[in-house]
Specification:
With 282 residues, the protein is an alpha/beta fold. The chain is 43% helix and 11% strand. It has helices at residues 19-29, 47-51, 53-69, 80-95, 97-108, 116-121, 127-134, 137-140, 174-181, 205-220, 232-241, 255-263; strands spanning 3-7, 32-36, 74-77, 123-126, 150-153, 185-186, 226-229, 252-254. It has a four-stranded parallel sheet with strand order 6-5-7-8, with helices on both faces. The radius of gyration is 19 Å and the shape is globular. The mean pLDDT is 93.
C-alpha cells in the first residue's frame, strides 16, 4: 500500500517547465498518490497580504476548509509561495478571533466550514518533505547506474523562513539530504537561500537580474553542472533571466527532475525538453 496525500498544485504547477510531468513520474515510481484538492483557488502568493490582508487570509482559509471537507488536516504543495501563504493565513486566523469569525461567515455562503481546532492542527508540507521524511529510503537508494552530475541545491528565500518550521532558517539541509539519498554529488555554495526576486521579475526586471546573476555566479563558482530548485517562480527566474549574462549556461532543474534522473526514469517522462537552458547530458 502506497502513501496518499491531498495535493494543492497552485497556479504555476501545470505550466512550469516539467514540474508536473516529473513529479507524477517520480510519485508513480515511489508509490505516492497526490490527490488534487477539489475546487482549489489561488493562494494569492505573497502579494495579496500586502494589498488586502483580509482577502489573503480568506484565500488561505478557503483552501483549509476544502481540505477539511475532504477529511484531511494536511495539505501538500510543491510551491514555496503557496506554502508560505497558507501558513501565514493560518497564523493570522489563530491570532485574530474576529477575523476567524468573519472568514467562517463568508465560508458558510459556500457551504464550507472551518473549525478553529482544525485550522490549528492543519499541517502544510512541501512535496520535498514527503520525499525525504515519508518515502522509504530504499526507493531512492536502489543500486543503479548514477548520473555524474554535480548538483547545487537552491531553496529560495521562503522555504525555511520566517520561522524555520521546516528547516534551519539560514542553512536548510533537506535538499542536500535528498540529493545525497539519490547518490548524486552535492555542490556546496552560499546562494541557497538568496532571493531570486520572485514576481518582481516583471515590473523590476533590471533589479531582479542583479539578484539572479549573483545567484548563478555564486553557484558556478564551485563548478556545479546544474542547480535544482523547489519552487516554480524560482525556476522561472533562474532559467529565463540568465540568458542576459556573460556566463556559461546553468541548467535549472526541479528536484523532481533530478530525482527522476537519479532513479533512472525515462528522460522523456521528466519534461526536460521544457527547460530554457537544456541539460545536454540528458
Amino acid at each position: 500500500m502506497g502513501l496518499s496525500y491531498l495535493f494543492f498544485p497552485g497556479c504555476s504547477y501545470e505550466t512550469a517547465a516539467g514540474y508536473r510531468e516529473s513529479a507524477e513520474a517520480v510519485c508513480r515510481a515511489v508509490e505516492v498518490e497526490l490527490k488534487e484538492l477539489p475546487e482549489w483557488n489561488c493562494c494569492g502568493a505573497s502579494a495579496v497580504f500586502s494589498l488586502d490582508r483580509a482577502e489573503g487570509v480568506w484565500l488561505a482559509a478557503r483552501l483549509a476548509a476544502l481540505a477539511g471537507r475532504e477529511g484531511k488536516l494536511e495539505i501538500v504543495s510543491g510551491c514555496n509561495g503557496c506554502i508560505s501563504a497558507l501558513k501565514k493565513g493560518k497564523k493570522l486566523l489563530l491570532q485574530d478571533k474576529g477575523l476567524m469569525e468573519q472568514v467562517r461567515v463568508r465560508l458558510k455562503k459556500e457551504n464550507l466550514k472551518l473549525d478553529p481546532a482544525d485550522i490549528k492542527d492543519l499541517r502544510v508540507r512541501h512535496l520535498l518533505e514527503i520525499f525525504v521524511q515519508d518515502v522509504p529510503v530504499q526507493f531512492w537508494a536502489k543500486e543503479r547506474p548514477k548520473p555524474k552530475f554535480k548538483v547545487a541545491p537552491y531553496y529560495g528565500c521562503l522555504f525555511s523562513r520566517p520561522d524555520g518550521e521546516i528547516d534551519d532558517n539560514e542553512h536548510p539541509i533537506l535538499l542536500e539530504s535528498f540529493i545525497s539519498l539519490l547518490g548524486l554529488d552535492v555542490v556546496e555554495h552560499s546562494m541557497g537561500t538568496a532571493c531570486c526576486g520572485a514576481s518582481h521579475s516583471l515590473p523590476h526586471k533590471a533589479a531582479v537580474s542583479v539578484l539572479v546573476e549573483r545567484i548563478i555566479r555564486g553557484i558556478q563558482t564551485n563548478n556545479a553542472d546544474l542547480a535544482t530548485v523547489i519552487c516554480p517562480l524560482c525556476q522561472f527566474n533562474l532559467d529565463s533571466i540568465q540568458a542576459n549574462f556573460d556566463l556559461p549556461p546553468l541548467p535549472i532543474l526541479y528536484f523532481t527532475q533530478v530525482a527522476g534522473l537519479g532513479m533512472g526514469l525515462p528522460v522523456s517522462s521528466l519534461g526536460l525538453n521544457k527547460l530554457l537552458v537544456p541539460l545536454k547530458e540528458a
